[in-house]
Amino acid sequence: MNRPLIILLLGILIAVAGFWGIYYSRTADTRALLASDIPELAWLKHEFNLSDAEFKRISELHESYLPRCADMCRRIAEKNSEIGKAIVASERLTSEIETKLREAAELRAECQAAMLKHFFEVSQTMPAEQGRRYLEWVQEKTFPPDHGLMAH
Amino acid sequence: MNSERSNESDFSDARLSALLKTWMVDAPVPPRFQQNVWRRIESQETRGSWLNELRQLFERHLARPVLVGSYLLLLLGVGLGTGYVQARQANSHLRDTLQSRYMQSVDPYQRVAAYHR
Questions:
Q1: Contact criterion met (CB below 8 Å) for B113 and A152
Q2: Is the pLDDT of residue B38 over 80?
Q3: I want to staple A126 with a disulfide (CB 3.0 to 4.6 A). Which of A17, A83, A130, B47 is the partner?
Q4: CA of B70, closest CA in chain A: separation in Å?
Q5: pLDDT averaged over chain A?
Q6: A62 and chain B: CB distance < 8 Å anywhere?
Q7: Which of A2, A23, A50, A150 to mutate to test the interface with B (most CBs of B within 10 A)?
Q8: Which residues of chain A make contact with B96, given a CB cutoff of 8 A?
Q9: Which has the closest alpha carbon to A34: B95, B6, B32, B48?
Q10: Tens-digit pLDDT profile for residues A21-38
Q11: Contact call for residues B71 and B62 (beta carbons, < 8 A)
């Protein structure tokens, strides 16, 4: 094999090694988060600089909130289905549809109250500054300025 | 047997040669036929010399250690730069994904919406 070809291939090899070297080192933290048991909670720990004790407490709060959240999910899906069926079965706004819409609004208020309670508990487990930042972030995600019309 | 076949072959070659000598092409040559032929020949020669020059230039440059070092450093830089940009994009994408997963785990409306997507 002649010299120019060897140098050309060596250059390509060095470029590929450089690419993978920096890519793996720069994504190591994120890959570690993904490899953890509950990646979204591991991300929370990383994002809000939580200590192990704070993370343990927040994980417990999260675990205890999940069944309630799953129950709300089920009720929301049922209510959506009921509203959908009532609309399909009617040709005008009936009292039945109005009732179901009111129930859906009440359910939304109940869900939002439960969420907020959980968010406050989580934020109080964090250091003060991180807790404020967490509340601002979840508020932006769950109570957007468009009143949730776009998000949901 | 073989000599008979050879005689036959010589005979048919002679006949073929005689036939070809009498063959006259009377079809008209396409317009600018010669010009086009020369142009194609020139084009082939130019392409060959261009590639050859590039190859020689490459060999000449790679004979100088300073230029070899620069070339290798340049490729290392390209690899590192591309890796850095790709890693930033991958981190940003994964961060967004984990944020969404967290929100879906605590917000029942987002979870229902994600389920129906």
A1: yes
A2: yes
A3: A130
A4: 10
A5: 89
A6: yes
A7: A23
A8: none
A9: B95
A10: 999 999 999 999 999 988
A11: yes
CA–CA separation, A123 and A131 (whole Å): 4
In terms of residues, how long is chain B?
Answer: 117
Residues 6 or more apart whose CB falls under 8 angstroms from that of B79 comprise A14, A15, A16, A17, A18, A19, A22
Interface of B with A (CB under 8 A): 58-59, 62-63, 68, 71-72, 75-80, 82-84, 86-88, 90-91, 94-95, 98-99, 101-103, 105-113, 115
DSSP-derived secondary structure letter, A93: -
Residues belonging to chain A? 152
For the stretch B18-29, pLDDT in tens is 888 888 877 778
**Stretch B99-111: mean pLDDT, rounded?**
90
- Structure tokens of B83? 């890796």
CA atoms within 13 A on the CB side of A105: 7
Task: Give dist(CA B46, CA B59) in Å, integer.
Answer: 20
Task: Find tokens 């993370």 and name the residue.
Answer: A55
pLDDT attached to residue B36: 87
What are the angstrom distances between the C-alpha of B88 and each of A17, A30, B75, B85, B95?
Answer: 18, 11, 20, 5, 10
Give the mutation candidate from B59, B109, B115, B116 for the A interface (greatest A CB count, under 10 A): B109
Residue of A nearest to B60 (CA): A4
CB contacts of A42 in chain B (<8 Å) are 98
Q: The pTM is what?
A: 0.67
